């Protein structure tokens, strides 16, 4: 008996952010100290909390050395520098904030910076996609971790993942835009306050979601899905725009949260590894203005398994 694939429809959006709206008090990013001049041939577009940079007249090959130089100027080293894949990833950059403690601890913190200090780490991943009409789309994603003190006396610490921060993404995307501009802006950009993050709320996806229909063209939806995959608990392995296929690996939350087996069980039966399974997401143009997204199997048929539905539910949360 054929299963009817449940669908969620995402309304159309013009998705364009002009400089004037970007500097408007309702924006997510913190205010700039001074108004910046608009740049010809470049603009930031958005959907919800997702933003990307549109460069109309330069190819990825032309932009690559400039983007590499930008990260160096920002104090980052690159751990991934692959023009062939269109992927660039920075190393982790740490910042520290002193905890409000007594005089003795504050004194120790100055002498031993790692003793009573909590830290944050951020790194950034950039993906360049060619535009069908020429030019390049630049997508920028942030990943963060924060240091948590543990132990009875808080004598040790561990790093834990933090949610994606749209404020930092907007900040660095704007810095990058002006770094790539024809007349490179020398104006200082106001520092963002991470606590001011205010990502747009995500609508809950139906539990039986098996496909998502967009009232938007393929070009935009392809970007949306790639952006959402970068933000979620996926490892993006390959992308084939011509076929409209993203290949990802995904570890289900049940496996991530499963309790560890006991010591003797691990000794005699071995430690069970959390294996990430491979999935294919298909982005297909239905008409010039509508696009369908689904998880498909090796035969190209829509996958309606619980795992596939959870994958699309995660994407739907990011895409609203």
What can you see in these coordinates?
The chain is of the alpha+beta class and 320 residues long. The chain folds into 2 domains: 1-14 and 200-320, TATA-Binding Protein; 29-198. It has 8 helices and 15 strands. It has helices spanning 19-22, 60-73, 103-111, 166-180, 218-231, 253-256, 263-269, 306-319; strands spanning 6-10, 16-17, 42-47, 50-55, 78-82, 87-90, 93-98, 117-130, 136-150, 156-162, 209-214, 234-240, 245-250, 277-285, 291-296. A hairpin with a 5-residue loop joins strand 9 and strand 10. The protein is globular and about 55 Å long. Residues 1-5, 13-35, 98-106, 185-207 and 254-261 have low confidence and may be disordered.
Morphology call: globular
**Average pLDDT level:** 74
The number of distinct helices, counting runs of at least 4 residues, comes to 8
Q: How much helicity do the residues have?
A: 25-40%
Low-confidence stretches: 1-5, 13-35, 98-106, 185-207, 254-261
- Derived from helix and strand composition plus strand pairing, the structural class reads alpha+beta
The H-and-E topology, N to C, reads as EEHEEHEEEHEEEHEHEEHHEEH
The first-to-last residue Cα distance is 32 Å
Number of DSSP strand runs: 15
Largest sheet: 9 strands, antiparallel
What is the radius of gyration computed over CA atoms, rounded to a whole number of angstroms? 22 Å
Q: How many structural domains in the coordinates?
A: 2
Taken as a percent bin, the fraction of beta residues is 25-35%
């Amino acid at each position: 008996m054929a299963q009817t694939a449940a669908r969620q429809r995402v309304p159309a959006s013009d998705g364009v952010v002009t400089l004037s709206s970007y500097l408007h008090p309702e924006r997510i990013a913190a205010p700039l100290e001074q108004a910046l001049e608009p740049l010809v041939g470049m603009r930031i577009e958005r959907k919800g909390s997702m933003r990307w940079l549109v460069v109309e007249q330069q190819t990825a090959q032309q932009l690559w050395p400039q983007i590499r130089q930008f990260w160096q100027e920002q104090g980052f080293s690159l751990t991934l520098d692959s023009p062939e894949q269109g992927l660039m990833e920075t190393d982790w950059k740490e910042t520290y904030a002193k905890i409000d403690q007594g005089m003795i601890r504050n004194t120790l913190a100055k002498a031993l910076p790692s003793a009573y200090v909590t830290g944050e780490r951020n790194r950034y991943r950039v993906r360049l996609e060619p535009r069908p009409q020429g030019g390049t789309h630049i997508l920028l994603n942030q990943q963060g971790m924060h240091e948590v003190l543990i132990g009875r006396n808080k004598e040790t610490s561990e790093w834990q993942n933090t949610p994606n921060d749209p404020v930092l993404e907007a900040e660095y995307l704007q810095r990058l835009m002006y770094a790539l501009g024809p007349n490179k802006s020398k104006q200082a950009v106001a520092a963002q306050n991470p606590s001011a993050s205010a990502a747009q709320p995500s609508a809950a996806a139906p539990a039986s979601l098996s496909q998502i229909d967009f009232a938007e063209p393929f070009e935009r939806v392809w970007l949306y899905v790639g952006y959402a995959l970068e933000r979620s608990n996926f490892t993006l392995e390959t992308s084939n725009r011509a076929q409209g296929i993203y290949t990802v690996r995904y570890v289900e939350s049940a496996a991530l949260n499963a309790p560890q087996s006991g010591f003797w069980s691990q000794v005699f039966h071995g430690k069970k590894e959390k294996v990430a399974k491979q999935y294919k997401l298909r982005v297909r143009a239905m008409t010039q203005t509508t696009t369908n997204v689904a998880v498909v199997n090796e035969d190209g048929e829509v996958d309606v398994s619980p795992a596939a539905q959870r994958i699309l539910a995660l994407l739907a949360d990011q895409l609203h």
